[in-house]
Structures
1.
Amino acid sequence: MKKLIFSLLICLSAVAAKAQIGYNYSQYELGFTAGVNTQHTDFIKKNSTYAFGGQFTYNFTPYINFMAEVNVGALRGDSIITSLPSNFAYNNDYTSVAFRAQLQAGELFDYSRSPFGNALKNFYISGGVGVLYTDLKVYDTGQLSAESKGSSIFIPAKLGYEFKFFNSYNEPFLKLDLGYQLNYIMSDNFDGYTSGKYSDAFTQFSVGLRFAIGGTTSYRKAIHW
């Protein structure tokens, strides 16, 4: 009798596990990003610069994500938009710490049995708040004329698409993230000058990889089909 009950429990466990295939996902992820920055400040020339970072993600669902991230990068500009001579330039090395919430389209509609809906489900919008810690250098005719360190609040707003890769249990274990992010700085002095009526900002094209690290749970509908 005990053997029969034990066998039934094993069968039920196997059936339950099989029923969850395609529904399970990891709540926690670690990721890495690389991006190309473009400055939008009081300087006309928009030099391309680079940024790199790390990310920790909590997945409330597969399509509602909360992210804490750290980035290190730089911004440069030449030819200032004022009456000053155009031989002024700046370089600002920064470290940013930000928190974002991300909503993917798959949370909003039923994508099952629809190849088109299945492709759309991974588009996302994201927003949050962060702090930029900066080391600003201003140059006059190639010579360093001023240097200062400080911090500024910024608002990250991001659009993107996430490619999900699945393991043998149809659980997403790796994600490739392609995104375009506007970082609106709550200051007009990020470049060392205050001019005009708009605050400084910069945009970033980024590529990221996120890896599932545990906390497996189930979603209300199949993630993979």
2.
Amino acid sequence: MPEGPSIVILREQAAVFTGQTIERAQGSAKLDKTRLVGQSVRSFRSWGKHFLIELEDVSLRVHLLLFGSYRINQRKESPPRLSLGFADGELNFYGCSVQTIEGLLDAAYDWSVDVMADGWTPRAALKRLRAHPQMLACDALLDQTLFAGSGNIIKNEVLFRIRVHPLSPIGALPPRKLRELVADVRRYSFEFLQYKREGTLKAHWLAHGRDICPRCNIPFSKAKALGRSKRRAFFCQRCQKRYGDGDDAHAEKPVQV
């Protein structure tokens, strides 16, 4: 599933069509595509994992889900969910969800929740996070109402960098560690963006997809479905502390990949 930084890149690439008029709208998405023809693009925006196309009297929300993709001025062999044609190019989306949003986007979204937005603040993020003391750290970093744009890569990398076990409840983290978590989600999201632009993202992974802990030089624990979110996790049992775990004997055992 593309994470927030990848959607920022899509937004930047699609910006060439800003101000242009849609001349063709096709695809299998269940929406009134005839309504789109003749409308000009006011802006392209992003919120977390949502790619937003703001038109004159309606907006489109594209979510690439787990395996969605897009092509600009190119096409795949498979039919698109949505294809928008302009005078000098086209924008094609595949394997995704497409919905319309009526009214102003500013009324539909709280931009401060987006970890890459200018309006994001650590104070507001901490307040939202502290309201969920029972939530596990691995789930909190995937909750889009807390950290819009944070995905499984960001989760695994951030928790490794701050040395927090993914099964630690948020309420058990010391205040200093909680602040560190919030700050590092923001910091690593922009590092992710830089690495993605350079084409070096995987080369910089310390935990996600790795076999050996670079700090302890021991095998990572690998879980197929950890926490309520049931997503893959890579973590070190030695250097990532499990806060709030009073009895290791009753600790949840990760399912090995």
3.
Amino acid sequence: MKDISWLTAQPIAHRGYHDMNHKIWENTLSAFSRAVENGYAIECDVQYSADSVPVIFHDDDMERLCGIKGDVRAKTAGELALMAVGGTADKVPSLGQLLRQVKGRVPIIVELKGRKGDDDGFADAVVDTLEDYKGPVALMSFDHWLLKDLKALDPPRPIGLTAEGSNPDTFFVHEEAMQLGLDFISYFYGHLPNSFITTQRTLGRPVITWTVRNGEATFAHADQMTFEGFDPKEGSAA
């Protein structure tokens, strides 16, 4: 099993250490810089641009973050690099830009935002972008087809399942995904504890939670938290 103790060594800033999109917006270089300055790991969302570049953006539609209607995947990385996020000076960054900014100073957890039937080459593009990066990076997704693609590429990075749910039917689906040989799990804190996560922790798989907003007790049922809206060092609003 890979040594991924770094994954749970420090709190993980959800979409970077933003301020709930007041002045510092989610998934921007400013939010990532603030996370590095405060010693927090970074979680980010990656989409697949029209020219096959992994770009950092959560939503499928661009209206909430950029004020325009339209599919983020219909834009090239160059077009997205000109689009302001939240009306700020920050533009939509690529995964490569994030790596060049962080330079291994804190861990990065990359969530691939899949779209079934439209993900050909997505996993390959992410793995290729990471090929020469020396810092700690983990990859994860809700989407089982992307997890299969990532495992088939066998990158030297831990791969995890992003998941939620509190009923046995859901656990069965999650267990199928874990049979791919995944290394960790990112689970919704509001659905803990449950038998699926208890079993996975017994098997030695690290569990991180999403998304903790006011210092709820992650550590009774998981190994680390993905947080937003407060400073874990102080328990106060971020």
